[in-house]
Amino acid sequence: MKKIFGIIKATIYDLIVAFFFIIVICYCAVKIGEEKFVMATHLLQIITIKPEEPQNISPVLEGNVLVNYPTFGTKYADIQIDSINLNLPVYYGANYTILKSGIAHDETSYFPGEGGSVIMAGHNFKSFFANLPKVKVGDIISLKTTYGTFNYEVSKTKIVNEDDVDEVPVQKDKEILMLYTCWPINNIGHASQRYVVYADIVK
Q1: How far apart are CA 147 and CA 145, in angstroms?
Q2: pLDDT at 56
Q3: Does residue 187 lie in a domain region?
């Protein structure tokens, strides 16, 4: 009987010691975890907090020359086509990120009001230029920029090959707005053609 009591007593003692060690280990793990969490969030804050960027100066149109051009990737206008119920932001420059956000202004072309080619592109997705082929000759396209509103009347539409740059020329003789998207509209993957809308500025 004493032997059994001794075994039970030893077992209880071992359990108490083990429980104590478990508590100590858990406490240490929690403290270490807290320190790592603090370090991780601190590093995250360092990574995500960017230095202040200089404020963009609003562009101003003097005659037909734009002063203080927008910086690449910034929104400077909204495009509105009432006939297809379209209203989207326009960003200066063209890359994957911009095309996911709105309409891209080809940086090699002119700005609205400068008297030359204004070239813009958009995805053929539902929320972007999917309805562009429904635009008709005579429809009005408005570009509401940070320095004024410019209206263009659609003169023609055309399907062109992607490498036919002569169909979307950059020129200074006449202000023409050219909008284009991939063709066919329901195309998935690489498209070898473009649907282009041409519009002349309305004086």
Answers
A1: 5
A2: 53
A3: yes
